[in-house]
Amino acid sequence: MSLSIAGALALAREMLAGSESPATDAKVLLAHVLGQSQTYLFTWSDKTLSETQQEQFLQLVSQRKNGHPVAHLTGYRDFWTLRLQVNPSTLIPRPETEILVEKALELLPETAESVCDLGTGTGAVALAIASERPGLHVYGVDRIADAVTLAKTNALHNNVANAQFLESHWFSSLTGKQFDMLVTNPPYVETSSEFLKLGDVRFEPRSALTAGEDGLDDIRFIITQARDYLKPGGWLLIEHGFEQGPAICHLYKQAGYTDAETFRDLAGHDRITVARMPACD
């Protein structure tokens, strides 16, 4: 039986009932199959799908029903003003990470010359900052070679020329460099967290998610080591779990940073904590 666009969406919502966002997922997947915008789906709701389109769409819906992330099914995720290719080698960019970009742009002085995104993954944060500050040199580093290749591809496809991506285990390839700001969305999930059994994270690399029993192993390392890679007065911005803000403020204080402050995301959860190196007298 041939389905109209409206009929296909209704069937997909039924198949995905009980999932986190059945209506949204159905629209994204059908727009992807048709190569059209979601507005098109409503404007031409009575249009009949071809046999190939219908088969492809229902296959994607079945995969989504089994838990596969929508971004992996379409091959991309929109973030900030960018369309980013994604793959299973790295995390899918989340909307809540945009607050990291917002705060970075707010705190960066006009005279800033360079920023580094630690654990860049798809390049989302680095490319968003670079796209807004074309005079800035933005680095993105990741220890996964496939992630670095992906970030370079995303820079090319989004016409961002002032971002450079390097393979580096945190600071290992940054010897001798200093930055006006370091930003990072590091692994911060506890290794025993039930969160790891839910949703999209089941299909994402565990190494990009977990960091010890309290989720702070990588953050401790970054806070300690970042002092050697920040200019005087330079900022370190860290995305983290909603209960980790106080612990990170304490780690900043222990390491000699100043002006530590935690900011919430749009859902009201603690999301990023920032601090800066003392400025020279």
TrEMBL record:
Tell me which Gene Ontology terms the entry assigns under biological process.
Answer: methylation
The reply to whether Protease figures as a keyword in the UniProt entry is no
* EC numbers on record: 2.1.1.297
Membrane spanning stretches: none
**Binding-site residues, substrate:** N185, P186, P187, Y188
User: By its UniProt entry, which CDD domains does this protein fall under?
Assistant: AdoMet_MTases
Claim: Ligase is one of the keywords in the record: no
Question: Catalysed reaction(s)?
Answer: L-glutaminyl-[peptide chain release factor] + S-adenosyl-L-methionine = N(5)-methyl-L-glutaminyl-[peptide chain release factor] + S-adenosyl-L-homocysteine + H(+)
> In what residue span(s) does the Release factor glutamine methyltransferase N-terminal domain sit?
8-75
Alphabetized UniProt keyword annotations: Methyltransferase, S-adenosyl-L-methionine, Transferase
Task: Show the PROSITE patterns listed in the entry.
Answer: N6_MTASE
Q: Where is the Methyltransferase small domain?
A: 105-194
The family database entries (InterPro entries) matched by this protein are listed as: DNA_methylase_N6_adenine_CS, HemK-like, N5-glutamine_MTase, PrmC_N, RF_methyltr_PrmC, SAM-dependent_MTases_sf, Small_mtfrase_dom
Record: residues binding S-adenosyl-L-methionine: G119, T120, G121, T122, G123, D142, W170, N185
* Pfam families associated with the record: MTS, PrmC_N
**HAMAP family membership:** RF_methyltr_PrmC
Question: What does the similarity note say?
Answer: Belongs to the protein N5-glutamine methyltransferase family. PrmC subfamily.
Q: What does this protein do?
A: Methylates the class 1 translation termination release factors RF1/PrfA and RF2/PrfB on the glutamine residue of the universally conserved GGQ motif.
- Report what the protein is called: Release factor glutamine methyltransferase
